[in-house]
Amino acid sequence: MRLKPLAVLPLVLTAPPAHPCAPVFDLSATPEYQNLDFATDIQPIFDVACVGCHGFAGNLDLSATQSYANLLNVPSANPFNAMDRVEPGDPAQSFLFWKINCSNPAALNWGSMMPIGGPPLAAQDQARIMDWIREGAAAAKDPLRVFRHGFEARPPQPPPPP
To answer: What is the pTM of this model?
Structure first.
């Protein structure tokens, strides 16, 4: 009995599919912001990009008098996400960070990327928000602090959520 040779199939390697929350921008090249003040460094970003929809009404009021209290350690209103809106010290566990930096939050049933209907926040604004969260989401600057962690490079950007 004569055996037929097996066909040799080419091996095709494909990259795994991109994570739905691939970052909009690689923030590692942006300057590191330190000792941020919420009212002067973060709120102006909200005033320009967010308050048009999230001001004075709705599920999330980001107006100047309400935003800080509505963000820190407050659970996300999204039923498919158990993160707090802002988890001080941890951008990877802060829903706000992913809403502005996730390229496709709808794939995780997290709604639209913010700001909705417009371009994403500039990389510098995203980095400022990430750094503010990372350093503890303080309401005001620490007048005695000069450097957060010496002259080290920017800490890495958080990995996408699972």
So the answer is: 0.80
| Residues 37-60 pLDDT 10s | 999 999 999 999 999 999 865 589
Q: Is there a contact between 73 and 61 (Cβ–Cβ < 8 Å)?
A: no
Residue with tokens 């997290």: 110
Rounded Cα distance between 109 and 116, Å, is 15
Listed as ranges, residues in the chain with pLDDT below 50 are none
The DSSP bridge partners found for residue 72 are 86
Which of these, 19, 21, 18, 25, lies nearest to 130 by C-alpha position?
25
